[in-house]
Write a structure and sequence with these properties.
The complex is a heterodimer of chains A (210) and B (218). Chain A is of the alpha/beta class. Chain A contains 6 helices and 8 strands, in the order E-E-E-H-E-E-H-H-H-E-H-E-E-H. Chain A is globular. Chain B is elongated and about 55 Å long. Chain B has one domain (2-216). Classes of the chains: A alpha/beta (210), B mainly alpha (218). Chains A and B meet through strand 5 and helix 2 of A and helix 1, helix 5 and helix 10 of B.
Chain lengths: 210, 218
């Protein structure tokens, strides 16, 4: 039983089809690394998988409420402390324990610090910690290692491996080597849309009137 | 849901949250009017109900764009949209939090501002009642406007243009209730209309706002 099944998916950004013919399925304990040059549509694909935008063609099948999405921004409130930020998301997703997560992401010493006083790398770690309190099996990570140092990248890989070990799955868009040889790789460069044709329907307000 | 409400209230009351801004703006509007129209009590008390309601409306407008814009910028809105909480519920809670930090303080402090404008004595309870009944609609309609304009640069200006016409029915019945209270007439009919407008808004606007947000998040 796969956690996430994608068949012949095509996605569009700004009304232009960027990637098409993407098919994969993700079993528990598996990770998929998305690769490809800038602008190929990695973020767009992840947002489509998360249900934030509709697919142009093809299907995405996932169990309801199985997917946790972590985009470029971490969704942190500068005025709240690390604990308050994390507890908020834990409560929204059904009250998971945050003490263990703070420990795992090496954030315990920063727990009482407001998020605006964190460095970029520390913010990123808190953003990744948020995934752990969602309790959802499928993680979609968009460039998770941006602004992380080498130790934190290792921490991130260890956290991912622990998640896979618990029967989770992950789709990761990244340019650097996470040090996870067991992960499969999908090169989106091979799925580049053959002709960039404009979709008849605008994707949003900005596009329609901007 | 409770978590979201607590977070929004906490954010509003911490540094830079803008709590009290609406009240201060309301105070300034109410002190400027006597300078503009002159200090005669008769003139002022005749226009006081309208001025108080227009002032409340404009003060409410100040912080509307913050309902979604900040969450959109820092990515929280993407995460809320994928959370187990229905987006309609999140919209309603955020509008409620906005009302708690703007509309409710406005309604409770309005009698003080009424004094500045020579509002006749019998009108005070009706001023508070009309604001308590009417301002939830202002926050909810504002949340809809904020949802429509969330991704736009300088969306705050467009937001005002979109939302102010929608405020007209609330303004008419709210000011009419206070005017009748001031004249010693029965203000119940406009108050009932005011409550009806608020209830209809509370029922419909969360769905419209959530739909607009989904389009803007694409």
């Amino acid at each position: 039983m796969s956690l996430l099944a994608v068949r012949d998916l095509a996605v569009a950004r700004g009304g232009l089809r960027v990637v098409e013919g993407v098919s994969f399925s993700l079993d528990p304990g598996r990770a998929l690394v998305l690769r490809g040059p800038n602008g190929i549509g990695k973020t767009t694909l992840l947002r489509t998988l998360a249900g934030l935008q509709p697919a142009v063609a093809g299907t995405v099948e996932a169990a309801p409420e199985a997917i946790a999405y972590a985009g470029h921004s971490d969704g942190l409130k500068p005025a709240l402390t690390v604990t308050e930020n994390l507890r908020f998301w834990a409560e929204i997703f059904g009250g998971h324990d945050i003490a263990a997560v703070l420990e795992a992401m090496n954030l315990r010493e920063l727990a009482a610090r407001p998020a605006h006083a964190l460095s970029a790398g520390q913010k990123r770690r808190l953003g990744l910690a948020r995934l752990m309190v969602t309790g959802r099996p499928v993680w979609l990570l968009d460039e998770p290692t941006v602004s992380l140092d080498r130790d934190s990248v290792a921490l991130c890989a260890a956290m991912l491996r622990a998640h896979l070990g618990r029967g989770g799955a992950a789709v990761i868009a990244t340019h650097i080597d996470l040090g996870m040889p067991e992960a499969e790789t999908l090169d989106l460069g091979l799925h580049r849309a053959t002709q960039a044709r404009r979709e008849s329907r605008p994707a949003g307000f900005n596009e329609a009137f901007g | 849901m409770k978590a979201l409400l607590i977070r929004d209230l906490r954010l509003a009351t911490r540094a830079g949250g803008g709590f009290g801004l609406a009240l201060a703006f309301f105070l300034i509007v109410c002190t400027l009017v006597p300078f503009g129209v002159g200090p005669e009590g008769g003139t002022l008390s005749r226009i006081a109900p309208g001025i108080l309601w227009v002032g409340a409306l404009l003060s409410c407008l100040l912080s509307l764009d913050r309902i979604f814009a900040l969450d959109f910028e820092d990515g929280s809105l993407d995460l809320l949209a994928t959370a187990p909480l229905p987006l309609e519920g999140a919209v309603a809670i955020k509008a409620f939090a906005h009302w708690l930090v703007t509309g409710l303080p406005l309604a409770l402090s309005a009698p003080v501002f009424g004094l500045l404008l020579h509002l006749p004595g019998p009108a005070y309870p009706w001023l508070v009642a009309s604001l308590v009944l009417g301002t939830p609609a202002l926050s909810m309609l504002g949340a809809f406007g904020a949802a429509v304009t969330v991704g736009l640069r300088r969306g705050g200006l467009l937001l005002s243009l979109l939302v102010l016409p929608l405020y007209v029915p609330t303004l008419i019945f709210g000011a009419e209730a206070v005017r009748r209270g001031a004249a010693g007439a029965d203000p119940v009919v406009p108050l009932v209309f005011l409550a009806a407008i608020t209830l209809a808004t509370l029922a419909l606007a969360p769905f419209a706002a959530a739909a607009a947000l989904r389009v803007n998040l694409r």
